[in-house]
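Project standup — Tuesday

K.O.: blocked on the structure for the chain from last sprint. Re-posting the sequence here as requested.
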Amino acid sequence: MNLSQRLWQQNQDLARASLEHPFVQGIYDGTLPKAKFAYYVGQDAFFLESFARAYSIAAAKAPDWQGFAVFHELANGVLEELKLHQAYAKTWGVSLSDVQPGSTTRRYTDFLLAIAWGQEMGVTAAAMSPCMRLYAHIGQALASRGILENAYSDWVRTYSGDDFAPLVTQLETLVDRHSTDSPLVAETFRYAMLCERDFFEAAWQGE
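H.V.: unblocked you, prediction finished:
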């Protein structure tokens, strides 16, 4: 088992907590109140902008051209994801330019950017991997039950789809190649998993 797989397996408790969270389950069955999803869309758009910046910082620190190129490809994937959020924003009446990050969102983005600026590229890859792997895991787990047609069906299709999975694999390949099997990497990965769980909770609570 390689490093990215070990890190993922070591945090299955948090993966389950996110998958089973009422916010995520409400997306699947369509019962999630629209106001909660609208809040999430705004917060996630803010988060994704910081995520793209962290990718770019990591690319600048990449020790080889392949890492540089992959991080830029991943940043482009985030830009495509932001286009989806812009479409959501129009549908749900959210003005992304007016979004103010909640404390949970800010804690997560500050963590990612601090890691990107202050640590080696391998640690940054470990900090960013949980978001990608978790969303693919959630999307695939929900889709395996059959995608229900409701207001949130496109969300499930996006994260269970064939376009998203390769991005996850690309990032995990960087983890395996450049991250060390160290307490710092393990703690960084778990903290990001905690931030993911808390992000869903903040949206559920309408922080």
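K.O.: great, moving the ticket to review. The chain has one domain: 3-205. The chain has a mean pLDDT of 92.
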